[in-house]
Amino acid sequence: MVSEFQFINHIKKRFSLDRVGDDCAVLPQNRTTDLLITADLLIEDIDFRVDWSTTEQIGHKTLAVSLSDIAAMGGIPTSAMLSIGVPQKLWDEGFPEAFYRGWHKLASQFGVELIGGDTSRSPDKLVIDSIVLGEIPSGKAVLRSGARQDDAIFVSGTLGGASAGLMLLESGQPKLAKTEKIIDRQLCPFPQVELGKQLRKLGIVTSMIDISDGLASDLLHICEASGVGAVLIAESIPVDPIVLEIADESFQAALNGGEDFELLFTVPESKVSALADLPVTQIGTITSDRGNLEVIRDGTRETLQPSGFQHFS
Amino acid sequence: MVSEFQFINHIKKRFSLDRVGDDCAVLPQNRTTDLLITADLLIEDIDFRVDWSTTEQIGHKTLAVSLSDIAAMGGIPTSAMLSIGVPQKLWDEGFPEAFYRGWHKLASQFGVELIGGDTSRSPDKLVIDSIVLGEIPSGKAVLRSGARQDDAIFVSGTLGGASAGLMLLESGQPKLAKTEKIIDRQLCPFPQVELGKQLRKLGIVTSMIDISDGLASDLLHICEASGVGAVLIAESIPVDPIVLEIADESFQAALNGGEDFELLFTVPESKVSALADLPVTQIGTITSDRGNLEVIRDGTRETLQPSGFQHFS
């Protein structure tokens, strides 16, 4: 069957949907500003488990994933809508109040105002659609499509923590002081809005995406949108130090683990020095080999098959 | 337990959310135009049944309910996003393609462009969040809050068809030529965008809402937002003629049946003549009796308890 990525590409072509396919849609707002808008659908037992998180954490993560999309364009979030479908039992237990408390705590850090949405009953699973609007100076949104041959590939922060945290939750192992931090990365991610804005202001970033599906998958999204390929240097990928310590497959976690919500972006090789003071790491180079991802590890160059998260395969 | 309306009022007060609570949120866009945005969450077996509709009809209705919210502000729809959570079985059967075909057919009638959204897997139920953006001249959005004492209350079209259509579907009776039209009102509603725009341009409409929960419930939303009451004349309510013919409780269907997606609005009594050529009917008058709905039927005046659709009670 087709994956959701293939389906979206199919309807984009069939109905000439030029604006679909980046982290946010970009619409002209006025003479100086473009409007950004993004939606993220989160479904219980697919995207989160209610028994692993506090209700406040679910509220936090709901907003964080959409703020991360605004960050990936270099934008500034402004307002939001929430559509929630709540099973009767969770409603009776006061779920919406606690959920909204967690949501609002993060929203107030970014000055994001709730302006609307919808509240519905759901037969069994909790369903949330998170919609966030943002602003950016006209024409300055950083798209996925601007990566060019020989651009350097960078990533912010460290990778693999969120997916290793998820594996720990799935294993049912008791929480340890050491592992709490990566479990937090899974349950309570922090969106890189400030860094995204800084990067956009430098004016040198040619493409950007947030890491939600996994480094390899999201890099492939950039490559496909830009009509280029990429080669990664395995040893330079900043694996989360806790993951390095505890996981057998730490490199796989960093390469294919989703939901780190770090920023993945490209800059021309000649401009790399402008990033010196930022918490970012160069991990590879854009090639002309369209749609082809490679990794050099222990001196060997091999093709990379992304196995990051997708809903349908 | 609290209803969803009570909960929304509660968080509005608690977090000072001034923009929440109308059919659409209104945001300033530029010097001449405001942006409208609305979201509608539709969940299988709560808001629709996949075995009653064609997939194209589900796509049509998804967009129609949100276009109706734009209509209720007097706005012009421009673009849209779709978040869909699809069970694997429906995905494998090609649901998204047919759904999008039905959606796009209606969208193209209104020049609405799909600009984004999200596609996810859902464990068992189909879930759709429909987001529509629109435009309106600055400051001209028709809110729920402008109804004043002695304003005349109007409704467009006829009422009760959609809920009678739903009852027929629920009863499992075979479709008849006579009943097809009201079943279509339930499965394939048409949003009153053109009428909403005409009404707004007249400049005399003091408040407006679309009838999604039911005439009495939606009139109560206007009364609560405006700090007024209302009295309806039962005999003047335009009940769908097919409903009059086939339903024992045709008046109840018109009063409390949801999803007719007609427009309910108020105008000062002195301006009523401006509506002469429009397909609208005067059904009552706004009173100063805050939050109190009454109906005069067979010469008797009685208090009205809305029993229209709500998800939690």
Query: Regarding CATH, which class of the largest domain in chain A?
Result: Alpha Beta
Query: H/E order of the elements of chain A?
Result: HEEHEHHEEEHHHEHEHHEEEE
Quaternary structure state of the chains depicted: homodimer
Largest interface: A-B, 61 and 62 residues
Question: For this structure, what is the CATH homologous superfamily of the largest domain in chain A?
Answer: PurM-like C-terminal domain
Largest sheet of chain A: 7 strands, mixed
Structural class of chain A: alpha+beta
Percent helix among the residues of chain A?
25-40%
Number of strands of chain A: 12
Which second-level CATH architecture of the largest domain in chain A applies?
Alpha-Beta Complex
Domains of chain A (count): 2
CATH topology of the largest domain in chain A: Phosphoribosyl-aminoimidazole Synthetase, Chain A, domain 2
Large-scale geometry of chain A: globular
What share of residues are in beta strands of chain A? Answer: 25-35%
The mean pLDDT of chain A is 93
Distance between the termini of chain A: 6 Å
Strand order of the largest sheet of chain A: 7-9-6-10-8-11-12
Indicate the low-confidence ranges of chain A by residue numbers: none
- Supply the number of helical segments of chain A: 10
- Radius of gyration of chain A, in Å, reads 19 Å
